[in-house]
Amino acid sequence: MGAHLSRRDVLRGLGITALAGVVAGCGGPDDGVGPDGRVTIELWHGQNDSGRKVIEALIADFQRGHPDIVVDTSGGALADGLLEKVMTALASGSHPDIAYIFGADLPSVARSPQVVDMTDEVRSWSVPWTDYWQPARDAVTVNGRVRAVPAVVDTLAVVCNKTLFDQAGLPLPKPGWSWSDFLATAKKLTDPAGGVFGTGWPGTGDEDTVWRLWPMVWDLGGQIIDADGTGIGFRQEGERALGVVRRLATDKSVYIDPKAGSEQLYQVFESGRMGMVMTGPWQLPDIIQSGVDYHVAPLPTFGGKPVTISGPDTWTLFDNGPARVRAARTFVRWLTDPAQDVRWDVAAGSLPLSKDAENRKEWHDNAAQTEGLSVFVDALTSARVRPAHPAYPQVSQAVGTAIVSMLLNRSTPAQAMRACADEADAALIIPR
């Protein structure tokens, strides 16, 4: 996703009123077909600011080219609240036709029989499905079936303040640097008297806290969930990764953001008081606007092999009858086509969903004008996604607690990992 504020703030945030019966007077009660033959579909997008402007402009263009389809965006909620609202709507039979669902939430949503299977649909697109980046495809695939289409794809990298590096006499990091290098650099950048931190980490224990740890786990050979799905696959790897966080805390080189959304963390960086921040492409517009002279480097590694994480979000379709399903499929097919996708990516701070979109002139122009953007795109080749498993939120919660205990020096990595494993394993053995 999505920030900049935090990753999610760019993508979320539009508080909009509930749908006021726009479709109720048209055609049958469920088919969405009006007396004029046009089909109305409901889109809950939750976008805000630049995201809202570009999605509304794209919808206007779509409707000019598809006069038989009306896309109604008057319903929805804050994107952070969309999951709860969608689940409630599914229970009452008042669900939208399309909703913006975060990738980590899709496995839970996809258990509903109202979620439209998109497997055959994506195979019929003009852009081959295999041309979409692997993380984007993995994020929408649940139990071997495509249960949504990609909406946003991103990666994590390290953005550095070049001025602070110069003042500390440190070279800028290059691809292949290690986590030991990261720790040593963060310590040297830290200047308590000057109010400068080496780096930062969200300290609320939520997913924003957690997903920064997974590249370390994967780099060490671990898996979030083991092959049979009955337990975690990162006991030893998790302990070592937690050790990195603990070292940042004991070195006093990390700013701990106490509030959800990481807004304060980014404010510290953009005010010139933080040397390095792990973030995604969504944050570059705000960093540029702040005037910070920056450099982007890939994430550090333990063994030199590049690895990062991508947090794709999705457009998930719901069944409101054949006519509305057809219209919804038509819309998302059009929306994710490279010509439209690149407009969305440039305006909303995302990365191209497919190699075809990356190859468009509009994207090349954007990348040429934005320092470091190519680093995030290049990282897509080594990016992985969180598992499409309904118990992942419980696993994440356990890991978040462990990370916070490291940041606050409340336990050792071994102790935190034992408690984390007990809680996460218990979540995974519960029938779902």
Question: Can you offer a commentary on this structure?
Answer:
This protein has helices at 7-11, 49-65, 82-92, 106-109, 119-123, 134-139, 162-168, 179-189, 207-210, 214-219, 235-250, 263-270, 284-290, 322-335, 338-348, 355-358, 361-369, 373-378, 392-407, 413-429; strands at residues 39-44, 69-72, 98-102, 141-142, 145-146, 149-152, 157-161, 199-202, 223-225, 232-233, 254-257, 276-279, 294-297, 308-309, 313-317, 383-384. The protein has 432 residues and is α/β, with parallel strands linked by helices. The chain has a five-stranded mixed beta sheet. Helix 11 (235-250) runs parallel beside helix 19. It is 43% helix and 13% strand. It starts with 6 loop residues before the first helix and ends with a helix. Strand 9 and strand 10 form a beta hairpin. The protein has two domains: 7-153 and 311-384, Periplasmic binding protein-like II (D-Maltodextrin-Binding Protein, domain 2); 157-309 and 391-429, Periplasmic binding protein-like II (D-Maltodextrin-Binding Protein, domain 2).
Q: What is the total tally of β strands?
A: 16
Please give the CATH class of the largest domain: Alpha Beta
Domain module count: 2
Could you estimate the helical fraction of the residues in percent? 40-55%
Counting H and I runs of at least 4 residues, what is the number of helices? Answer: 20
Strand order of the largest sheet: 2-1-3-15-6
Question: How far is the first residue's CA from the last residue's CA?
Answer: 27 Å
CATH topology heading of the largest domain: D-Maltodextrin-Binding Protein, domain 2
- What is the SS-derived class? alpha/beta
State which percent range the strand residues make up: 5-15%
How would you name the oligomeric state of the polypeptide chains in this document?
single chain
Instruction: Identify low-pLDDT runs.
Output: 1-29
Characterize the main sheet.
5 strands, mixed
Query: How big is the Rg?
Result: 22 Å
CATH superfamily of the largest domain: Periplasmic binding protein-like II
Q: Based on the coordinates given, report the CATH architecture of the largest domain.
A: 3-Layer(aba) Sandwich
Averaging pLDDT over every residue, what do you get?
90
* Overall geometry: globular
